[in-house]
Amino acid sequence: MDRTEDREPLVEIEGLRKLFDQSQGVIDTVLGREPRPVRAVDGVSLDIHQGDIVGIAGESGCGKTTLGKMLVKLHEPTEGTIRFDGEDITDMTREEERAFRKRVQMIFQDPFESLNPRMTVYDTVAEPLKINDMVEGYEERRERVKGVLEDVGLGPAEVYLDSFPDELSGGERQRVAIARALVVDPDFVVCDEPVSMLDVSIRAGVLNLMKELQAEYDLTYLFISHDLSLIRYMCDRAGIMYLGNMVEQGPTDDIIDDPKHPYTEALFDAVPDVELGEERRRANATGEVPSPRNPPSGCRYHPRCAHIIPPDDWTGSQEAFRRAYQFKLKVRRGDLNPDVIDGGVADEADALVEHGLTLDVPEEYRTETEVESGGSRVDVAAIDLPASARRSLTEAAEAVLDGDIDAALDALEDEITTPCESREPRPQPSGTREVACHLYDDGDVGSLGGSDGGLSAAPAED
Question: What is the reported pLDDT for 142?
Answer without folding.
Answer: 94
